[in-house]
């Protein structure tokens, strides 16, 4: 078809699409009627004005102000290349409504290949915009929203295709850093394997799953999330993606841990109390018995503690208790369980340590206590000793109650033969009807 007969000026004037021609300095040299209508300005207001004019403002898809250097005409002026399908919102002072347009722009060059004009075209898509801006809601939501491909689940999958702004705030990762990678990059050494297995099982079966999981930020800092993962289907009814809505519950977990500490910790020494000791020691005992490992239990009692309270008052007695608690920590390993069972009585459960090793450590502990009396605020010093009773895990003594009973018998023996002693329980040496010494 011969298009030479068409009247280009008439064609542009009658287009429903807006057409604006800019000079190389971005000033407007032409605007068709559709453009003036969409921009809500007159031809007089348009001609000669550039994109720096403050009479109207542009916003991006997230309703954030668009900087001048990101205006379509300036992008083309800078790159000398066309751009297409840029979604923009146009605002001005005449009303509160936003006009949404889909914009294209391209450069025109003169015979010397210098930029002559920039032509921008745009169509009004306001009526196509959803009444509820779901995309903006997702992007700006306080909760983390993460979308992955449905397959593959194993190896490097599922692959991340989208993460909102809250994901960056919580994890420190930007979308560009994680796109194409699996969410497992957020997991770490203390992420629970049972939770991982539950999530994987649900994804393999295309099911929804809700779990609380410990993840790690880009900085390496651990954080807890309450996560709900659900499948997203395509037009064919096939699961194509998984969406995860995640809420940071780190503070809640910390608060719960603090509340638990109140129930299992002794407030004076910050050691485990009897309840916390029983919970932790029962688990340790089961593990060591199952794995055929050593486990040694030591009962420790401060000798003549009543005399300390009588001479220095309860404040002096409390300082001694706090001091010996800190001393225990310095002599024990991280996996040892240390508890104050009540009064001046303490207990230490040593995992994967034989009796001879524990007895040597107790000897060093006793020497240290003799050489390091506790200084009181008044300037006086409190010297004291301890008595120790030791029992160990055997096929005959394989319950916590049994170990405690045996260690208590050995402790009584240590006090009976002169205190400041360590005695190891031996069934052949001790009867079952012994009384407890002070």
What CATH architecture label of the largest domain applies? 2-Layer Sandwich
Structural class: alpha+beta
Shape: elongated
Summarize the biggest pleated sheet: 6 strands, antiparallel
How are the strands of the largest sheet arranged?
Answer: 2-1-6-5-4-3
Q: What is the CATH C level class of the largest domain, in words?
A: Alpha Beta
Task: Provide the helix percentage.
Answer: 25-40%
CATH topology label of the largest domain = Alpha-Beta Plaits
Number of DSSP strands? Answer: 18
Mean pLDDT comes to 89
Number of structural domains: 3
Strand content: 25-35%
If helices are DSSP runs of H or I spanning 4 or more residues, what is the number of helices? Answer: 13
Low-pLDDT regions: 431-438
What's the alpha carbon Rg, rounded to whole Å? 38 Å
> What is the fourth-level CATH superfamily of the largest domain?
Reverse transcriptase/Diguanylate cyclase domain
State the end-to-end CA separation: 114 Å
Task: List its salient traits.
438 residues, alpha+beta, Beta-Lactamase, Alpha-Beta Plaits, 3 domains, six-stranded antiparallel β-sheet, five-stranded antiparallel β-sheet, 13 helices, 34% helix, disordered C terminus
